[in-house]
Specification:
The protein is an alpha+beta fold. It has helices at residues 8-24, 29-36, 40-52, 126-141, 179-187, 196-207, 266-270, 272-281, 290-298, 302-326, 336-340, 342-355, 374-389, and strands at 27-28, 56-58, 76-79, 88-94, 98-105, 110-117, 148-155, 158-160, 165-169, 174-177, 191-195, 215-221, 225-231, 234-235, 330-335, 365-366, 400-401, 404-405. It has three domains: 8-61 and 75-80, Winged helix-like DNA-binding domain superfamily/Winged helix DNA-binding domain (Arc Repressor Mutant, subunit A), CATH 1.10.10; 88-200 and 373-389, Nucleotidyltransferase, domain 5, CATH 3.30.420.40; 210-367, Nucleotidyltransferase, domain 5. The model is unreliable at 66-72 and 398-408 (pLDDT under 50). The chain has a five-stranded mixed beta sheet with strand order 6-5-4-7-11, with helices on both faces. The protein has a five-stranded mixed beta sheet with strand order 14-13-12-15-16, with helices on both faces. Strand 12 (215-221) and strand 13 (225-231) form a beta hairpin.
Length: 408
């Protein structure tokens, strides 16, 4: 059987092999067959194609070189994460005050990162400025010894990943922006774009806790407030990729006015924008910066700690509503203070448990598995999730094809 890109059966089998190695590797071909349900012959064919594509590598067999073995050794397969030949993905997370660049290997390990502040740049030239800074980052940190698979880009708001288009991002003042095409033209790379809440959900499914592969809800609290929902390894997008807008989810007990005309909306109550403004109003920090507020709390300022705990409890009350609707195997909350300090995650859990009619185990509410590296990893996962879903896609840099090696 010839491996043909686009053949649904070949694509599904190759994805099954690659995911099995991700979850269980290093692992012998015979074990891949037992774990994936594929025949040994099918595993052998797919492994050959994945080795040729540079996504897998063979490791020395146990006991190799001792001279005492009889028969064909059980050669383990693993993802190719080696410093020479191991593919990498670039990541770009675009926030309101800054962007983050990253390089990530096939296991989601963060290899390099850099922050690019852009809060004073005009919206019209922002994507070009980000692309230029990202090109400089890649020139500095990406080595030609490791094939670059492409770029994954993540940001808040309404994003259509199939078209690579930002439908609406109020914080960046972007509407119907062809971000994927712009970045691809500027960088000369394949680019895939998605909402950052869905990107984190995909990273949890690929690299995080096994429970996330059954079902998860991800709640993202930043300058933009978003959510994502996954079941059986698939992240829901909805028609027009509009799923996950929870900005106007009501927070029980909140009376904060919202620009929509109502009170108690999650965006107005708990976003970083709202929290930073409240911190300045209370005289805790000079600038509306949540990182400054978190630093003040860590330095022992009780006012900063009190405000962060207030926010955490508001997030927990909103999380309880989502929990009761979906009852996921795991709920992941990305919120800066709770990612950095376990005590604030405890406040989220306590409030969710007190207000939920379903949640009886607060330990199922967790922070992202990558911790502070959550956004750099998630951005690159926008690309990597497609690689794991369709490993037999177009030839990639470093892949050996019948016509020779694919070069940048």
């Amino acid at each position: 059987m010839t491996l043909v890109p686009g053949d649904p059966r070949a694509v599904a089998n190759a994805a099954a092999v690659l995911r099995t190695v991700l979850e269980c590797g290093p692992v012998a071909r015979s074990e891949v067959a037992a774990l994936s349900g594929l025949s040994p012959a099918a595993v052998s064919r797919q492994a050959t194609g994945l080795l040729r594509a540079g996504l897998l590598r063979e490791l020395p067999a146990p006991g190799a070189g001792t001279g005492g073995g009889v028969g064909r050794p059980r050669v383990p397969l693993d993802l190719h994460t080696g410093a020479v030949g191991g593919p990498v993905a670039a990541g770009l997370h675009i926030g309101v005050p800054s962007a983050t660049f990253s390089l990530v290997d096939l296991r989601g390990t963060l290899l390099a990162r850099r922050t690019f502040p852009h809060q004073h740049l005009p919206a019209a030239g922002l994507s070009a400025a980000i692309a230029a800074a990202l090109a400089r980052f890649l020139a500095e940190y990406h080595t030609p010894r490791r094939p670059l698979l492409g770029l994954g880009a993540a940001l808040g708001g309404w994003v259509d990943p199939e078209e690579g288009r930002v439908v609406h991002h109020p914080g960046l003042h972007w509407r119907h922006k062809p971000l994927g095409a712009e970045l691809s033209a500027a960088l000369g790379l394949p680019v895939h774009v998605d909402n950052h809440a869905r990107a984190v959900a995909r990273a949890e499914i690929l690299f995080g806790r096994p429970e996330a592969r059954r079902s998860l809800v991800h709640l993202f609290i930043g300058n933009v407030v978003d959510a994502a929902f996954g079941i059986e390894g698939t992240v829901h997008q909805g028609p027009g990729a509009a799923a996950g807008d929870v900005a106007h989810l009501p927070v029980p007990g909140s009376g904060v006015p919202c620009a929509c005309g109502r009170t108690g909306c999650l965006q107005a109550t708990a976003s970083d924008t709202a929290l930073g403004a409240e911190a300045v109003r209370r005289g805790i920090v000079p600038d509306p910066s949540v990182p400054l507020l978190v630093d003040a709390a860590a330095a022992g300022d009780p006012r900063a700690d009190r405000l962060l705990r207030e926010r955490a409890r508001a997030v927990g009350r909103a999380a309880a509503l989502l929990w009761d609707v979906f009852n996921p195997a795991v709920m992941v909350v990305t919120e800066l203070a709770s990612v950095l300090h376990e005590g604030y995650l405890g406040e989220i859990r306590g409030a969710a448990l007190a207000h939920s009619h379903v949640c009886d185990d607060p330990e199922r509410i967790v922070g992202p598995h990558a911790g502070p590296a959550v956004l750099p990893e998630a951005a690159a996962t926008v690309l990597l999730s497609r690689v794991f879903r369709d490993p037999l896609g177009p030839p990639r840099e470093g892949e050996i094809t019948p016509d020779g090696m694919v070069h940048p």
